[in-house]
Amino acid sequence: MSKKKARKNSEAEVENEESLTTRYLPSDAELAELKQSYSSLLKCKHTTQVLDVVTYRVCESFQNFYIVKSLNSKKPAVAILPKCLLTSFGVARPFEMKDFSFEAVTIAHKSLDDADYSLAVVCAKPELLCLKEEFKFTESERSFVALVESVSSKQGVSLRFASGVTKQVALRDISSPEKVTDFYTVGQVVRTALNKGGKLSLKRTVVDHVDPKAGTRDNAALLLAFDRIQSPSGIEALAIGAKVHGKV
Question: Which of these CATH numbers, 3.30.750.24, 2.40.50.140, 2.120.10.30, 2.60.40.3390, describes 132-227?
Fold first, then answer.
């Protein structure tokens, strides 16, 4: 096979990979429909800044995303919540209950046909809310948190940072690359760092070398995230036989 043909096949595979952008964000046709349905709630571009945390409720459900409406402003605004960015720890949250409200952090903006307007894209994963200040990528000697944009057994893992910035992590920079599709899923929160060659790595040894205190921050964030997801505003539906701790 020629190098040119191999490159085309590789590009075709990337295009066919399931990703946060292609599966969990509205298509152009859906954006046009949303623009009509929510014209009175659309706000000028970037009214909600990236990394802002806002309280929302669901107002409409689509196959792979929710349209949510903000509660803590004089004039409510709508945003897109991808269904791969809803929760953590395998806990089902009652997003479609009428009075259920939750916090979400703005991770990007999705422009509409009119360049003056856009919809915020938000994430409700509690650990990202706790670590949101580390979600912005810069060329610096520290570690970052990111969302998994896509996973490929041949290309590696694509990571999404604040404002829609994406970066690729090659298989050689991933622990157990032969199991990459088992260890990583679209929408997962991960920590990464630049290795000595200036390439992003998901290897824990690289992260710990660059940022020895990252593990401590991650553990603290996970504890806060679990508390947040079990807070009164986020009480979960309990499965039959589940163990519950309480006080009288």
Answer: 2.40.50.140
3-class secondary structure, 246: coil
Q: Is 217 helix (H, G, I), strand (E, B) or coil?
A: helix
Residue ranges of alpha helices (H) inside the chain are 3-16, 20-24, 28-37, 126-130, 180-183, 204-210, 214-229
Q: What strands, in cross-sheet order, belong to the sheet with 189-194? A: 166-169, 156-160, 143-152, 189-194, 200-201
> Of the candidates 145, 164, 158, which has an alpha carbon nearest to the alpha carbon of residue 211?
145
Residue pLDDT, tens place only, 12-68: 444 456 899 999 999 999 998 998 899 888 765 556 899 999 999 999 999 999 999
pLDDT in tens, 103-148: 999 999 998 876 677 899 999 999 999 999 999 998 888 899 999 9
Neighbours of 69 (CB within 10 A): 18
Give CA–CA dist 94/196, Å, rounded: 44
Beta-carbon count within 10 A of 215 CB:
14
